[in-house]
Amino acid sequence: MNTDPIADYLTRVRNAIKANHRVVEIPASNLKKEITKVLFEKGYIANFKFEDNGPQGSIKVALKYHPITKIPAIRSISRISKPGLRKYAGMDTMPRVLNGLGIAILSTSKGVMTDKEARAQNVGGEVLCYVY
């Protein structure tokens, strides 16, 4: 029983990057699938694959590294809104990660998106995590 599946997802990715793994396998959920799609669209992961094995399924994430220096594309990934203390951001209080160099992933009424997309669509929501 995991009380915070999103934090578990982020921790698995963080640990795999620190251990220089190429692929990490994560138990699937709809929210995790959407977060994975956002990370892929923004270029933080190389590829992903959804597998429907068992009742829950899994997500295989191929991590992205620089070809010469082997530095990971994800320098930092941290959970912001936790089950004990939810963090919400409106249009006027939308966070900027590293002054716009990183992304904040939000869960809005129009789906999971980055802070820049939420500003463009004029919506707010729950700040799930920061990635840079």
UniProtKB/TrEMBL annotation:
The alphabetized UniProt keywords are: Ribonucleoprotein, Ribosomal protein, RNA-binding, rRNA-binding
Extract the Pfam families matched here: Ribosomal_S8 (PF00410)
Which is a Gene Ontology cellular component entry for this protein? ribosome
Top-level division of the source organism's lineage: Bacteria
Q: Does the keyword Ribosomal protein apply?
A: yes
Gene3D superfamilies reported in the protein's UniProt record? 3.30.1370.30, 3.30.1490.10
Asked if the keyword Transmembrane helix belongs to this entry, the reply reads no
Q: What does this protein do?
A: One of the primary rRNA binding proteins, it binds directly to 16S rRNA central domain where it helps coordinate assembly of the platform of the 30S subunit.
The record describes its quaternary structure and partners as: Part of the 30S ribosomal subunit. Contacts proteins S5 and S12.
Family annotation (HAMAP family):
Ribosomal_uS8_B (MF_01302_B)
Q: Please report which protein family the annotation says this sequence is part of.
A: Belongs to the universal ribosomal protein uS8 family.
| Name this polypeptide is given | Small ribosomal subunit protein uS8
Q: Which organism is it from?
A: Mucilaginibacter pankratovii
